[in-house]
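Researcher: Please translate sequence to structure tokens.
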Amino acid sequence: LASLVIAADGYAYGVGGRANRCELLRFDFRHDRYELLGHIVDEGGEPCWQVHHIVMADDGTLYACENDNPRRSGYLWEIRI
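Model: Translation complete:
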């Protein structure tokens, strides 16, 4: 888990995994549990390689910064939950 953001909704969101196997997680500190929300894949089926930073915008959209992808120099993922 290389990236984590504590959001205004009371949850923490993170991205774990690498090498095309990145998953979005949601942590609920109030109830001491987490939930896997799924793999990060674009509409064309291209998976996320590895994320080093994640933020949440005021509208609830997550933005994840991809790095170390051997097929492209980087990518900014827009993730809507």
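Researcher: Any highlights?
Model: The two ends are 19 Å apart (CA to CA).
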